[in-house]
Amino acid sequence: MEKLIFEKSSPGRIGYSLPNLEIEKKNISEFIPKEYLRKEAAELPEVSEIEIARHFQHLSHLNFNIEKGMYPLGSCTMKYNPKVNEKVAAMDGFANLHPFSRDENAQGALKMMFELGECLKKITGLPGVSLQPAAGSQGELTGILTFKKYFETRGETNKTVILIPDSAHGTNPASAAMAGFDIVSVKSGPDGRIDLDDLKAKCIDNVAGLMLTNPNTLGLFETDVIEIEKLVHGCGGLIYMDGANLNALLTIARAGDMKFDCVHINLHKTFSTPHGGGGPGAGPICVSEKLIEFLPVPNIEKHGEEYKLNYNFPNTVGKVHTFGGNFGVLVRAYTYIRMLGEVGLKRVSENAVINANYILSKIKDYFEVPYPGYCLHECIISGNFQKRDGVSTRDIAKRLLDLGFHAPTIYFPLVVKEAMLIEPTETENLENLDGFIKAMIQIATEAKEEPDTVLQAPVTTPLRRLDEATANRNLDIRWRKEAVTA
Ligand SMILES: Cc1ncc(COP(=O)(O)O)c(C=O)c1O
Question: How far is the CA of 421 from the centre of ligand 1 (A)?
């Protein structure tokens, strides 16, 4: 096993050169309160620059990432994140702008945010926007809080229920419950789309709204969206679009045209920010006319050639993030949108959809396909056939790692047993898609003919199978001397 950086340490070696201190060492206690001063030197590795460079390279190789191989994690849109985004986000005027800067000293940043907001309004076809939420889930919470305020201002205290399809992402019911609503689940029909009869039966007076993911988490467009909208609006409710899957719809279908009152957009997915391991993200929301007054403050406004923050919205739900939201992610999304333009964005969605359908068409004879037909930007298959041979979807996912691919999303959505949700994204070329297809077919064959190969996987990763719950809940990545010397 590769030696860790502490084990390579040798007294006196250095990998840095710092400018001389401007203050005398002996006077440090004048500047730093005594209780904060170290009693003994920190135990840090003493290594040369090349060793530290190798150390970080090595760490990056231990993990799977989009620059290592295809990462078809359904619903997460792990597309390639263009390097130009990073360059722009690191520009001095963006990266080093003080968050307390006065409006007149932050015109460039405000302009960028205003223009991003305008782009998102155009992309969603809705007239109001807030860039503040820091994730899709926080966008959901913020959007549903605007629903709540809407009913409160109208004195409609009977509106206590949010309807949520059973295929929805777990954050949907969590957000609605956090906003103080009761949740009622709506069934999916045999075609994977919302069951209209079940929805009809549940659209009664107490319904404040419906949260609908479109395309839904099965990768299917909710073709009855107009009928659904009529039912929900018909009982005095509002309709929320979980726009996490917007990668399939760019410039093709807009939330506003489908009469949604609110949509959140996962900028980190659709508009490309590296977002593995839980962050960073941004989940702006766009809203219909009737919800604009409830949006978080401040609103970014353009007066002539000047940009200003306006806090004067008495009915606002308040602030949901400090300053301008997750600013660096906003810069990346803005760069991405401006680089591609309308034509480029359309090609993103078209290629994302074509790629997912290409994979589905090539593997459909080897795996169970719960909803036959075309999909949008991701396809859902089931490992049910393999399960009968004693190989689970988890085993298939592990084996994919050995073959150089990140696993798709597994066991989600819950309505499909042994689910595998595959989202190749538009950034993979034909050779990579074919490589993934070949790997999936190989695993299906192994599951039948030599199941042990799949059951033993992964054998090529730095660690084999972990206790996933413990690894997640008690993540421990600290180096300890005792652990090595023990
Ligand atoms: C359909 C759907 N909705 C909501 C979310 C939540 O988004 P975030 O992870 O940015 O909070 C996700 C995240 O994967 C999602 O796939």
Answer: 14
Whether 281 lines ligand 1, by a CB cut-off of 6 Å, is yes
Q: What is the mean pLDDT of residues 264-274?
A: 96
376 CB near ligand 1 (under 6 Å):
no
Q: What is the mean pLDDT of residues 208-227?
A: 98
Shared domain check, 99 and 207: yes
Write the residue with the smallest CA distance to atom 5 of ligand 1: 136
How remote is the CA of residue 201 from the centroid of ligand 1, in Å?
28
Q: Which of 91, 126, 131 is nearest to 110 (CA)?
A: 131
User: What number does the ligand 1 atom closest to the CA of 278 have?
Assistant: 9
Q: What is the mean pLDDT of residues 144-150?
A: 98
On whether both 269 and 415 belong to a single domain, the answer is no
Whether pLDDT at 483 is above 90: no
Same domain assignment for residues 170 and 233: yes
Same domain, 451 and 370: yes
Q: List, edge to edge, every strand of the sheet that includes 238-242.
A: 128-130, 285-287, 262-264, 238-242, 207-213, 161-165, 182-186
Taking CA atoms, 400 is separated from 71, 439, 440, in Å, by 11, 7, 8
Beta-sheet pairing, 161-165 with 182-186: parallel
CATH number at residue 218: 3.40.640.10
| Count: domains in the chain | 3
217 lines ligand 1 (CB under 6 A): yes
The CA 38 to ligand 1 mean position distance, Å, reads: 43
**CA 87 – ligand 1 centroid, Å:** 26
Q: Tell me: pLDDT of 451 over 80.
A: yes
Ligand 1 pocket, 326 CB below 6 A?
no
DSSP code string of 68-79: TS---BTTT---
Distance 482 CA to ligand 1 centre (A): 40
Least confident of 4-18, 21-35, 290-304: 21-35
Average pLDDT on 356-365 reads: 98
Tell me, yes or no, whether 354 and 453 share the same domain: yes
User: What pLDDT shows up at residue 362?
Assistant: 98
What integer best gives the mean pLDDT of the chain?
Answer: 95
What is the per-residue pLDDT for 25? 72
CA 86 to chain centre: 18
Is 95 a domain residue? yes
